[in-house]
Specification:
- The complex is a heterodimer of chains A (260) and B (292).
- Chain A is globular.
- By secondary structure, chain A is an alpha/beta fold.
- The mean pLDDT of chain A is 92.
- In chain A, the strands form two sheets. Chain A has a six-stranded mixed β-sheet, sandwiched between helices.
- Chain A has a domain of 179 residues: P-loop containing nucleotide triphosphate hydrolases (Rossmann fold), CATH 3.40.50.
- By secondary structure, chain B is mostly helical.
- Chain B has one domain: MetI-like fold (Orthogonal Bundle), CATH 1.10.3720.
- Chain B contains eleven helices and no strands.
- The model of chain B has no long low-confidence stretch (mean pLDDT 91).
- The chains are: A alpha/beta (260), B mainly alpha (292).
- The interface between A and B is medium-sized, with 27 and 21 residues.
- Chain A: Keywords: ATP-binding, Nucleotide-binding, Phosphate transport, Transport.
- Chain A: GO terms for molecular function: ATP binding.
- Chain A: This is Phosphate import ATP-binding protein PstB.
- Chain B: Pfam families: BPD_transp_1.
């Protein structure tokens, strides 16, 4: 974990400036500005309804699939604006993968779940696909558990396995960023611990943004923590600093359970 | 805080619960009984008539002893043709309504149109088909007039079933697909349609069954005669179906054995529908095992 004594060496991957998000008439996110560094884990915490999940979904524009939304201000990936920089949203979603709150494997075999993404991009060669599937399953620490039953349905796996399969599925298209929307909220403590361990390994070459309700989880897995409240960013800093010496009174109150 | 609320279990609510369960059970039983009596009566009357000769002979126009070979063929051929026309259109329209059309006024209007079309009495479609295809287009009483008009009966049902089945696909699955960089079309083809397949299939069978039993439309478009060659795949010849035959022999009254032929025809129809429904059950279970 990054400590206040060592300077940040990683470049900014995602940058947000004065960003507002409107859903219909309602302003859900208000004037957000923050930077997310490559190969770091950034946690977003805050009470329910503070807009953390909405914020996360802005990075891959997945909310556009189901409803009309309005984003103003700047959101950039590698210095290119996500909304106005001429980025194709389909390509963006390949680069910015997502793991959802509830494990959502396709009702297909384990193998087909992981191969789904590569197939979208025209990978047909069996050996290549086999390699991608094995690699993704190894990275998500699932390979040893499932290598003998790749043809079995993914819906028959345990919740924790399903969630790691969803991570493998996301990794199979070689994303640069992984967005995780409360990935452990439906899992038991053992499965949660496995996912958290995985996050630590994956950040070697991925930018990870994780929304979590669990403050201990944020403290355990993240390098940076951002505290949201009612659609506003109250404070963002190194996780170590947020949890020991927050600058804002509100952050401290939330972390110590005085409100929220 | 109000003091005296009793949270003791209420006797009455348990009694009503039990009474309701019994009543619903009784209703279901009554329905099955009616159905059993109905099917039993048809099969009982038709059974003595059913033999290989009846199924493989050509129909007679004046004498007793005619068969229903071409009618069986025409029925299946017309259902297949009408589905071949209505499936692509209905599927396409359903996909459009579920996945592409927004939530606006146009969609509501479109849905109203389709529901109206679905509720249109078949005799109205029959006369429309006769005026447009039989007369204006000059197709006369033929397989093609019948198939196209029958397709008009199928399209709204297939459209609606497709739309409803697609709307029932869990949002999480579509999100997962989009999240991996899938386009809308890829998501529809690879995630939504496979998931919706069993629902669409069930609707398709209901549609096929309805088309199979349809008489009014075919009396006015496919006619009450049949080609003398067998099997005749030409689209321009008249094609009397089983249900039309059933109606025709009983209302025309020139055949001495009209009653027996009607009973046998009805029994064949019931058996075909049973086989159709059962085979779909199996197919449905097969697909479900592979896609859910």
């Amino acid at each position: 974990m990054l400590s206040p004594q060592t300077p940040e060496t990683k470049p900014v991957k995602l940058s947000v400036r004065n960003m507002d998000f409107r859903y219909g008439e309602k302003k859900v996110l208000d004037g957000l500005s923050l930077d997310i560094h490559a190969e770091r884990v950034t946690a977003i915490i805050g009470p329910s309804g503070c807009g953390k999940s909405t914020f996360l979904k802005c990075f891959n524009r997945i909310h556009e699939v189901s409803s009309a939304v309005k984003v103003s201000g700047d959101m950039q990936i590698d210095g290119v604006d996500i909304y106005r920089g001429g980025i194709d949203e389909v390509d963006l979603r390949r680069r910015v993968g997502m793991v959802f709150q509830k494990p959502n494997p396709f009702p297909k075999s384990i193998y087909e779940n992981v191969a789904f993404g590569p197939r979208l991009f025209g990978v047909k060669d069996r050996a290549t696909l086999d390699g991608i599937v094995e690699d993704a399953l190894r990275k998500s620490a699932l390979w040893d558990e499932v290598k003998d039953r790749l043809k079995e349905s993914a819906t028959g796996m345990s919740g924790g396995q399903q969630q790691r399969l969803c991570i493998a599925r996301a990794l199979a298209v070689n994303p640069e960023v992984l967005l995780m929307d409360e990935p452990c909220s439906a899992l038991d403590p053992i499965a949660t611990a496995k996912i958290e361990e995985l996050i630590g390994e994956l950040k070697e070459n991925l930018t990870i943004v994780i929304v979590t309700h669990n403050m201990q989880q944020a403290a355990r897995v993240s390098d940076y923590t951002a505290f949201f409240w009612l659609g506003k960013l109250i404070e963002m800093d190194l996780t170590e600093r947020i949890f020991t010496t927050p600058r804002e009174r509100m952050t401290e109150d939330y972390l110590t359970g005085r409100f929220g | 805080m109000p003091a005296a609320i009793s949270y003791r279990p209420r006797r009455l609510s348990r009694v009503t619960d039990r009474v309701m369960r019994l009543a619903l059970w009784g209703l279901a039983l009554a329905f099955i009984a009616v159905l059993a009596v109905f099917v039993g009566a048809i099969l009982k009357q038709g059974w003595p008539v059913l033999n290989l000769g009846f199924l493989t002979r050509m129909p007679e126009t004046l004498d007793a002893g005619g068969g229903i070979k071409p009618e069986i063929f025409n029925s299946l051929y017309l259902v297949a043709l009408s589905l071949a026309i209505s499936l692509p259109i209905g599927l396409g329209a359903g996909i459009y309504m579920a996945e592409y059309a927004g939530q606006g006024r146009i969609l509501r209007f479109l849905r109203l149109c389709i529901e109206t079309l679905a509720a249109t009495p078949s005799i109205v479609l029959a006369l429309f088909g006769m005026i447009v295809f039989v007369q204006m287009m000059g197709w006369s009483f033929s397989i093609r007039s019948g198939a196209v008009t029958l397709a008009l009966l199928n399209i709204p049902v297939i459209t609606r079933v497709t739309e409803v089945s697609l709307l029932a696909v869990p949002r999480e699955l579509k999100e997962a697909s989009y999240g991996l960089g899938a386009t809308r079309l890829q998501t529809i083809l690879k995630v939504a349609l496979p998931y919706a397949a069993t629902g669409i299939l069930t609707g398709l069978v209901l549609t096929a069954g309805r088309a199979f039993g349809e008489s009014a439309i075919l009396v006015f478009t496919a006619g009450t005669n049949t080609s003398q060659t067998f099997p005749d795949f030409r689209l321009t010849v008249p094609g009397e179906t089983l249900s039309v035959h059933l109606w025709y022999v009983t209302s025309d009254g020139t055949l001495p054995d009209a009653r027996e032929i009607a009973a046998g025809t009805a029994a064949v129809m019931i058996v075909v529908l049973l086989v159709l429904n059962l085979s779909v059950r199996f197919l449905d279970r097969f697909i479900r095992r592979r896609t859910r």
